[in-house]
Design brief:
It is built from nine helices and seven strands. By secondary structure, the protein is of the alpha/beta class. Bound molecules: acetoacetyl-coenzyme A. The site of acetoacetyl-coenzyme A (CAA) has 19 residues, from α5 and α7.
């Protein structure tokens, strides 16, 4: 049996493309999701990839969910921390709840998931952690103090952990997408979205498959010398 990959938020948007690309590359894939049962059922019916429901913001749920995945497929070799949410608001209007929800999912969720696969990866002397950050974690974005903080935090988290995992062949990397044609970006008001696209040198939104390709590369056995790095895939919008 091939390696086992677990993708959070793996039944929709960028996560769905990552799940499918890993499956096509020969992995046994589990896709976690938090809320949208209908989308998850449709995804499983179309792809044959089993979905598992829990919130990455809940540490105990992550532990139990990962145990369920491992009972079905075997130990997780590749964890893709993709689950993420937005609660955009200019800071003077941002509520403590909007701050907490985004940090709990996008940053603490990455801790919750990674912490529960880390020991096994160290013991087996192989692991790949790939976390999906964002161009807005690199450059900051108006109305996203919460989201930008969480996504910048994901990069710092990964750089620290890369140093801890290296000796045991556990790599920790980041992919930082720009604006990709997903529900999240399509929810941005049309006028604002058009203004954003005008700032992207390639002149279009990215495709989820263009992010998935980078993840498959970082997950591969051949990428073992790459750790602590961030691959930006943003159409030239920002260089870091
Ligand atoms: N820079 C400077 N000013 C901006 C701005 C920007 N980027 N965007 C909006 N503004 C200004 C507006 O011009 C407006 O100013 P005026 O009042 O003078 O006209 C003001 O901010 C808007 O203030 P409002 O009180 O009306 O704002 P609101 O409470 O209605 O919130 C918003 C609107 C949430 C900011 C909305 O414009 C929005 O959603 N913007 C997009 C934010 C964004 O890019 N989010 C990314 C989502 S996709 C994603 O996150 C995926 C990824 O990783 C890339």
């Amino acid at each position: 049996m091939g390696r086992v990959a677990l993708v959070t938020g793996g039944s929709r948007g960028i996560g769905a493309a990552i799940s499918e690309a890993l499956k096509a590359a020969g992995y046994s894939v589990a896709a976690n999701y938090a809320g949208n049962d209908e989308a998850a059922q449709k995804f499983t019916a179309e792809t044959g990839i089993k979905t598992y429901k829990w919130s990455v913001a809940d540490y105990d749920a992550c532990k139990a969910g990962i145990a369920a995945v491992e009972a079905d497929l075997g130990p997780v070799d590749v964890l893709v921390n993709n689950a993420g949410i937005t609660r955009d608001a200019p800071f003077h209007k941002m509520t403590p709840q909007q701050w907490r929800e985004v940090i709990d999912t996008n940053l603490t969720g990455v801790f919750n998931m990674t912490h529960n696969v880390w020991g096994g990866m160290r013991d087996r002397k192989f692991g790949r952690i790939v976390t999906i950050s964002s161009v807005n974690g690199q450059k900051g974005q108006f109305a996203q103090a919460n989201y930008s903080a969480s996504k910048a935090g994901d990069i710092g988290f990964s750089r620290a952990l890369a140093q801890e995992g290296a000796r045991n062949n556990v790599t920790v990397n980041v992919v930082a997408p720009g604006y990709i044609a997903t529900d999240m970006v399509m929810a941005v008001p049309e006028k604002v979205r058009e203004a954003i696209i005008a700032q992207i040198p390639v002149g279009r939104l990215g495709e989820a498959t263009e992010i998935a390709r980078a993840v498959v590369f970082l997950a591969s056995d051949e990428a073992g010398f790459i750790t602590g790095s961030t691959i930006s895939a943003n159409g030239g919008q920002f260089f870091s």
